[in-house]
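so my prof wants the structure for this chain in the tokens format not the other one, which i didnt know existed until like an hour ago. anyway here's the sequence
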Amino acid sequence: MSTIHRFEEIEAWRTARQLTKAVYALAASGSFTRDFALRDQMRRAAVSIMSNIAEGFESRTSGLFLEFLGRAKGSAGELRAQFYVASDAGYLTPAQSQTLQDQCEKCSGQISGFASYLESLPKHKRFASPSQPSNLQTSKRSSSLQPANLQTCKPSNVPDPHD
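here's what i got, hopefully its the right format
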């Protein structure tokens, strides 16, 4: 079991970051640059995935974190649909479209797996202190939970890209 201290350590966030880089590169090339509406909507959807994961992690409760993960998953689905539009409009080759859609599905699956894992934890263990894994860690100034000490282990249904 490992402890996540920063949202940048979450695999789904890392995948979303790679996806966002790909969208920005794609949107800056060819005739796609002139389709302002689709280009901008795709950028917003990609950024939304990353942002919702980060915002949820930094939120004050596990319930809010799960809500933001749901929003991030929704944005991944939105982006996947937009790749179909971009493909149909001739901005993507079939191979590019498939690669990007696969990356969206991977990210969506990672978010789902992470959310399912968090939901499976007893509420008192979702945001526990690394030194006291079974105790709820709260601030003396606030009764809110501290997500910076979220304990996690890799969900079994999410492949580790480092293997």
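also thought this was worth mentioning. Confidence is low (pLDDT under 50) at residues 128-163.
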